[in-house]
Design goal:
Number of strands: 13
Oligomer: single chain
Structural class: mainly beta
Number of helices: 2
Helix content: 10-25%
């Protein structure tokens, strides 16, 4: 496993072995059955290209009312529990952090992307965000605390994990494109990105 750093971003290349990736995807299938993927709208009415769901005490949602965390799926059902295999990544890489309260599940199809953004809707920025890549490779763009800061891109492949903490916790980042069909982890192609985060303010 190779570890790279860039302005506080820590990238663990090939952190998950192929068998561990397959087991994690199998565990996520039950989560998606209980809380199906949704294509949310931005506050200004644009449909997002990324399908989203979540596990944990909270899930991230968006509509005309704005970006926010909710304790239930849009269907009204509670979010499923975060799978143990996903929690184990957090416990291994950020053992001193508070327990994650949300695992956001993003599914990228062939044309999906995610513009530059900062994860700034949580209540405790001292806690890290841990991002797990599964499936097709993606071009991941990393910036700084301002949207205008210079950016650098890196190819994230299946099994890679990124930790955003310290200087990178509120840095702008995004996904430019997916190299669709390059991985055989997902039967129909695409990329799953899991982001674990703490939602509530500290006690």
């Amino acid at each position: 496993m190779q570890t790279l750093t860039h302005h506080g971003f820590r990238i663990y290349k090939s952190y998950l072995s192929p068998p561990a990736q397959r087991a994690m995807v199998d565990g996520l299938r039950a989560v998606i059955r209980a809380a199906p993927l949704s294509h949310y709208e931005t506050p200004w009415g644009k449909r997002m290209s990324v399908g989203m769901s979540a596990a944990g005490a909270f899930g991230w949602v968006s509509d005309r009312a704005g970006y926010r965390y909710a304790d239930k799926h849009p269907s009204g059902v509670p979010w499923p529990k975060i799978p143990d295999a996903v929690l184990a990544v957090w416990q291994d890489l950020v053992p001193d952090a508070r327990a994650p309260e949300c695992c956001l599940i993003n599914f990228y199809g062939s044309a999906a992307k995610m513009g530059l953004h900062s994860d700034d809707t949580e209540g405790d920025f001292t806690q890290p965000v841990v991002s797990i890549s599964l499936g097709d490779p993606a071009t991941f763009r990393m910036g700084g605390p301002s949207r205008k800061d210079p950016t650098r891109s890196i190819l994230l492949e299946s099994g890679d994990v990124v930790v955003m903490a310290g200087d990178s916790r509120l840095a702008y980042h995004g996904v430019d494109r997916i190299r669709f069909g390059r991985s055989d982890l997902l039967q129909k192609g695409g990329r799953i990105n899991l982001t674990l985060r703490v939602v509530t303010p500290p006690d």
